[in-house]
Amino acid sequence: MYNSFRNTIIEWYVLNKRDLPWRKSGDPYKIWLSEIILQQTRVVQGTPYYYKFIEAFPTIFDLARANEEEVLRLWQGLGYYSRARNLHKCAKVVLENFEGVFPGEYVELTRLPGIGPYTAAALASIAFKIPKPVVDGNVQRVLSRYFGIHDDVSSPRTVKKMYELSENLIDQEQPDLYNQGIMEFGALHCTPKKPLCKKCPLISTCFAYENGKVEVLPVKLKKVKKKIRHFHYQVFKTDNEIALKRRIKGDIWQGLYDFHLLENNEKYEVTTILEKLNLDPARMTIKGDQWTIKHILTHQNIFAHFLQIEIDQEVKKVLESAGMRFFNYEKVRQLPKPILIDNYLHDEIF
Ligand code: SF4
Prior knowledge:
By secondary structure, this protein is α+β, with helices and mostly antiparallel strands. The chain folds into two domains: 2-210, Endonuclease III, domain 1 (Orthogonal Bundle); 227-348, Alpha-Beta Complex (Nucleoside Triphosphate Pyrophosphohydrolase), CATH 3.90.79.10. It is built from 16 helices and seven strands. It has a four-stranded mixed beta sheet with strand order 4-1-6-5. The longest helix has 18 residues, at 81-98. The chain binds iron/sulfur cluster.
């Protein structure tokens, strides 16, 4: 059974795989880069970023020597910015400790920044042909349906069980084709909704199809409870400058730039914001209304409220002494920012 499953997956992959740029290369740097970009990101969204990175940093040496702001700026819009920071750190470690060559050993790979068991297995199998299985959401779905696994896929015990099963399934000679094959099969064929069962090469032995369980497998019990946050941004402007600050550790968007911020669980009225700012109202002019957008992240929904405030040089000094920095428009364009801030600037300022 394992043999026929494995062979069918590999045959299907060879015939149906998408023509993706990193698949043309055996270069561990390009494979690693694509794996990091594609974590929590769909291929259509991630591919342009892959091209941008390869163009800006054709080798790991170029990436390691870049500065962090450059890397974050290129990453802008992809979210999960810790991935970009770790990408940069990892390039530096590979350069310093391994002379710019990724170690061809699974455990060594897991020790690198930003490389967990999943990415290490993908890199080890695809770039170095080491038979280490990958278990992502696509793999879990295919295995749950095909083998009739009814355990909750969000539980670590099930992930372990799937991993053990995958160790028996992986092709020892062609782990690269098997791993990429099962992920691609889950992404394109055995999809979450409307899987292509009627055209499936596994149909005659698939548990879910045979037992009418395609719609109920995989089982996923844990629902993410989202946190609601209200970000009240004050966009302080002089004639030709905007106040920004770099976000610090311990929250989303670390290292990126955003505006002066007051945070609360609920929306503030403009009068409350002005009271809280404790700045001389005679030296400020509010431009337009408070402008709100909802920004959805995996674990939180952010309601961002923007208020544009023109200020004079006295207020600028007060804000600078409180840690805000003023940049001209050209510099503001170049700084790495959350996509929410970038969109606001394009719509309302530039
Ligand atoms: S028959 Fe349907 S559910 Fe079973 S593996 Fe194929 S696509 Fe998935």
